[in-house]
Amino acid sequence: GRWKEAAEALREALALEPHSPGALAALGFALHLGGNVLGAVDAYHASLALDVGNPLVSELLAEALQDDAQLEDKLEI
User: What are the start-end ranges of the H helices in the chain?
Assistant: First the structure.
């Protein structure tokens, strides 16, 4: 997909509106689907700092953390 392009567009939007929890969550989603799990986790945390307890972002964060743990498990084999 074009997740890298989407992430870049979202970064540009965040430069104009850095405190947008929706844009931060969307950036996390684009990064996650593009394979940047750690970047996604950071973006989700930033989104949740602005919109505490958002159930969708909380779920996306949980999925990213699970993917990160699975990656770490594969690297240890």
Answer: 3-16, 21-33, 37-50, 55-76
User: Domains in the chain, start-ordered, CATH in brackets?
Assistant: 3-76 (1.25.40.10)
pTM (two decimals): 0.88
CB crowding 9-27: b at 16 or more within 10 Å, else e: ebeebbeeeeebbebbbbb
- In the block, residue with structure tokens 């540009």: 12
pLDDT tens column, 21-71:
999 999 999 999 999 999 999 999 999 999 999 999 999 999 999 988 887
